[in-house]
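Notebook B, p. 112. Complex prediction, attempt 2.
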Amino acid sequence: MKVISVLLVMLAFLLSHHACQSSYPQGGRIYSTLCASCHMKDGSGLEKLYPPLNGSNYLATASVDTLVCRILKGHPGGIVADGVLYNEQMPAYPDLKPAEMTNLLNYISNNWGNAFRTFHPQDVEKAHKHCSD
Amino acid sequence: MKISATTSILCLLGVLVACSERDKTLPILGNVEIVDGDTVYHQIPDFSFIDQDSQIITPSVFEDKLYVADFFFTSCPSICPIVKKQMLRIYDRYAEDDRLLLLSHSIDTRRDSVPRLKMYAGNLGIESARWHMVTGVKDEIFKLANAYFVTALEDENAPGGYDHSGRLILVDKKKHVRAWCNGTDEKEVTRFMDEIDLLLDESY
């Protein structure tokens, strides 16, 4: 009985430790530095100026090419996401390497309750190359 | 007996604390000058700008009102959206209170034309009667920022080309600055709204 109790405590510790670790830490750091000022720390965006990423159907369904190109090259505005027109300019981040881009996409797709999909480095690298050409 | 003495002291302290909280007023910020023997507090000087609805905005718009001022520009890629989100909290909290207005000065007079401010304000979902977003003569806006104790300057190395602080400034009916906070910090803005409540109680 005692052994089972000890094992349960250890299991609880391991689970809580796992839950406290944030996924994709590099993606989180990049997000804080480059994206959070407009899309906000909690991914909530700002009214009809900056689209939310939290719960965004656009983010959940857009192709890898579209997402990678939006981030690498930016956009002059006029993106319709989830039925709302956003006219503000999206800045370009051409210096993001494919690995950083993968981590960033995985962070925003699997944070704040989002559980959209996992991006694989080879797919992002292909999109990155395609978009940079 | 010992317990009742302690209880009495605690009660007395409680009353004293409650009184000091109720009597708390906000200080008048800025340098105090003595002019011809009179004490003169720092005041926001006169200004004339134009807002998102092409209305001329002068201090007369804020007569008998309190207002919260800030400095920003619409294409600012750094702190402005975060500050605007916090300003929006204030706007929403005092939605039914016409004693408080908001005034956002654009420091990018080149790009932030009236139509540009109109579109930005529209996308933020605000009414111009309660939240004026203004543009005007660049030097006058930068000079006025100093009077609000806000840094605002052109700097080609800063994100978007301008360096500025995200302070929110509370101004009373007599154009005195009474409180400020860092508009990027949600907790500070919560405290700032308590100070707005204090000033509303004091002013009306």
